[in-house]
C-alpha cells in the first residue's frame, strides 16, 4: 500500500493545501490547535511531526515551542515536502524537514518530548508499528499525539458520510485532477479504527502507560494522546 499512497500524494501535492482548505472549510486549523494544546508541548520542547505533508502541524508546533525549541517534520513523500521549507521561511519559522518512513525512523531513541502524526496513520502499512516507532523516539513521560478522522453517528454522521462520499471526490477531483485520491481518502477514513478501537491499537503497541481519545466535532475527528512508558 505504501507505494500506491506515495504515488497518490505525489500527484496531488501541488494542490493539496488549497484543496484541504476548501474541503475542510478551514476547520482543520482548529483541529491542529487542539492537537498542539493536548500534546503538552511548551517553550523549548523538541517535537517530531510524522507525515507532516506540507508542514502545517509542524509550523503550529514551532510557534508553540519558540526559538529554544526544535521541530522536525518528516514525510515519506518527497513531493509533499517540497513546499514546506518555503512555507516555514515565509512564516519566519525554523523547522527541519526530512524524508522519513514513520514505521522506520532513522532518529535516536528518547530524542523528542512529543511526536505527532495528523491524518497519516491510516495510510501506513502497520499502524501499531508506527505507534511503537513514534514512542521509541520520545523520552519516557513524553507524549505521542495522533490526529485522525473518526466516524460520527446519528443525523450528523449521515450528512458527513454523504459529504465524504459524494462532495469530496467531486470537488477534490476538480481541484487536483485526481478524483480517485479523494475517493480513497474518505474511504480509508471510514474504515479505520476510531475511538476505543484506536485506543486498542495503542494498547497493542505496548509503549504507553496512559492513553486517551478526545473527540472533535461530534466525532468527525479525534486527537489521541499516549504517554510514553
TrEMBL record:
Top enzyme class: transferase
GO MF annotations, alphabetized: demethylmenaquinone methyltransferase activity
Taxon lineage: Bacteria, Pseudomonadati, Myxococcota, Myxococcia, Myxococcales
Chain sites annotated for binding S-adenosyl-L-methionine: 54, 75, 101-102, 118
PANTHER family, alphabetized: 2-METHOXY-6-POLYPRENYL-1,4-BENZOQUINOL METHYLASE, MITOCHONDRIAL (PTHR43591:SF24), METHYLTRANSFERASE (PTHR43591)
InterPro entries, per the entry: SAM-dependent_MTases_sf (IPR029063), UbiE/COQ5_MeTrFase (IPR004033), UbiE/COQ5_MeTrFase_CS (IPR023576)
Catalytic activity: a 2-demethylmenaquinol + S-adenosyl-L-methionine = a menaquinol + S-adenosyl-L-homocysteine + H(+)
Function: Methyltransferase required for the conversion of demethylmenaquinol (DMKH2) to menaquinol (MKH2).
Record's keyword terms, sorted: Menaquinone biosynthesis, Methyltransferase, S-adenosyl-L-methionine, Transferase
HAMAP family to which the protein is assigned, alphabetical: MenG_UbiE_methyltr
Gene3D superfamilies documented for this protein: Vaccinia Virus protein VP39
EC number(s) stated in the UniProt entry for this protein: 2.1.1.163
Pathway in which this enzyme or protein is active: Quinol/quinone metabolism; menaquinone biosynthesis; menaquinol from 1,4-dihydroxy-2-naphthoate: step 2/2
GO biological process: menaquinone biosynthetic process; methylation; ubiquinone biosynthetic process
Entry's family note: Belongs to the class I-like SAM-binding methyltransferase superfamily. MenG/UbiE family.
Pfam families: Ubie_methyltran (PF01209)
Protein name, UniProt field: Demethylmenaquinone methyltransferase
Amino acid at each position: 500500500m505504501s507505494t500506491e499512497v506515495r504515488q497518490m500524494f505525489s500527484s496531488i501535492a501541488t494542490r493539496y493545501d488549497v484543496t484541504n482548505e476548501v474541503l475542510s472549510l478551514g476547520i482543520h486549523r482548529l483541529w491542529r490547535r487542539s492537537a498542539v494544546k493536548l500534546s503538552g508541548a511548551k517553550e523549548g520542547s523538541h517535537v517530531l511531526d510524522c507525515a507532516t505533508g506540507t508542514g502545517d502541524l509542524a509550523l503550529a508546533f514551532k510557534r508553540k515551542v519558540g526559538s529554544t525549541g526544535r521541530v522536525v517534520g518528516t514525510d515519506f513523500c518527497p513531493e509533499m515536502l517540497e513546499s514546506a521549507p518555503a512555507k516555514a521561511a515565509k512564516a519566519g519559522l525554523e523547522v527541519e524537514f526530512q524524508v522519513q518512513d514513520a514505521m522506520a525512523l532513522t532518529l535516536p531513541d528518547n530524542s523528542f518530548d512529543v511526536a505527532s502524526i495528523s491524518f497519516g496513520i491510516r495510510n501506513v502499512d502497520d499502524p501499531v508499528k508506527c505507534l511503537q516507532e513514534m514512542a521509541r523516539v520520545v523520552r519516557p513521560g513524553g507524549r505521542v499525539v495522533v490526529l485522525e478522522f473518526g466516524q460520527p453517528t446519528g443525523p450528523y454522521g449521515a450528512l458527513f458520510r454523504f459529504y465524504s462520499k459524494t462532495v469530496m471526490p467531486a470537488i477534490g477531483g476538480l481541484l487536483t485532477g485526481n478524483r480517485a485520491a479523494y475517493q480513497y481518502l474518505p474511504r480509508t477514513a471510514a474504515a479505520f479504527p476510531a475511538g476505543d478501537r484506536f485506543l486498542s491499537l495503542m494498547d497493542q503497541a505496548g509503549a504507553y502507560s496512559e492513553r486517551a481519545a478526545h473527540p472533535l466535532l461530534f466525532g468527525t475527528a479525534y486527537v489521541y494522546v499516549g504517554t510514553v512508558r
